[in-house]
Amino acid sequence: MKLGVFAVLFSKKTLDEMLDYIKSKGLDTVEIGTGGYVGDAHCKPAELLADEAKLEQFRQAFDSRGITISALSCHGNNLHPNQEIADEHHTTFVNTVKLASKLGVKNVVTFSGCPGESENSKHPVWITCPWPNDFSEVVDWQWENKVIPYWKEQAKLLEEYDVNVAVEPHPGFIVYNTETILRLRKECGDRIGANFDPSHYFWQGMNPVNSIKALGDAIFHFHAKDTRIDPQNNSLNGVLDTKSYRDIANRSWVFRTVGYGHGEDVWRDIISALQTIGYQGAISIEHEDGLMSVNEGFTKAVAFLKDMVIEKEAKDLWWA
């Protein structure tokens, strides 16, 4: 495993400035945003695909510094009921897959998407309970009419370009927990796996270690981000919380830098679980902490994780 970072944190820096900065922190792998909700400050796939000189210049920016790309990420809603949004995010996804293939990057990270409740919807609809029965009918319609057909078609694209998609389980989208990512993979093929982010598991009440072991080789990429559950607010209102992320004092939970939601023992267990299943990819630091600046959160995350993530080849044990 290698410790890296999701570079959208540094969208205000140029590509060269960003790469020099993360290199100065001792990291040598980076996840690059290519559009969708995370933006494309450092990488515009359509431009690079259309210009071989620009593509080579982009590649050399990494190679000259000894930095690898762990994933290209275009988190979006390709199933959005607003067709204009869906088309934009789908086009970005397709271009990102093609660019990943040219660059030799194995994983593209995105969301599963979330349709509306019918062909007449204007907004995505995420269902959180089975009753009244309307809700169960909507979930069935979404999977059978939108999710499975779309991702079966994308599996063909992924196979053609020899790229995998790491779908991030995230509330608000059709894939949000262990069983939904496994269902998508079962229905649509092994080119589809998970971008595992413990922060989304923590606040839903799941155990990341158990989920990692259940997913096994379906984990293609990993985000290092934490969540703090507020004991008082959670005891009053539970984890379904629609208040602004800026309303930190009143929310039931907030995203935190690793180590500020759960302690070292919890994170060591998570890293150990990844080692147990044979995960060899990146531990990509993601910062969404409303109580820390980007630089502070990133620097503290590197310091917290650097001695947990040991890059080495497996060796035979003398007693095995």
From TrEMBL:
Record InterPro entries: IolE/XylAMocC-like (IPR050312), Xyl_isomerase-like_sf (IPR036237), Xyl_isomerase-like_TIM-brl (IPR013022)
The keyword RNA-binding is annotated on this UniProt entry: no
One of the record's GO molecular function terms: isomerase activity
Transmembrane segments annotated in the record for this chain: none
Gene3D superfamilies named among the record's database cross-references: Divalent-metal-dependent TIM barrel enzymes (3.20.20.150)
Domain of life: Bacteria
Listed Pfam families: AP_endonuc_2
Keywords, sorted A to Z: Isomerase
Sequence ranges assigned to domain Xylose isomerase-like TIM barrel in this UniProt record: 20-307
Protein name, UniProt field: Sugar phosphate isomerase/epimerase
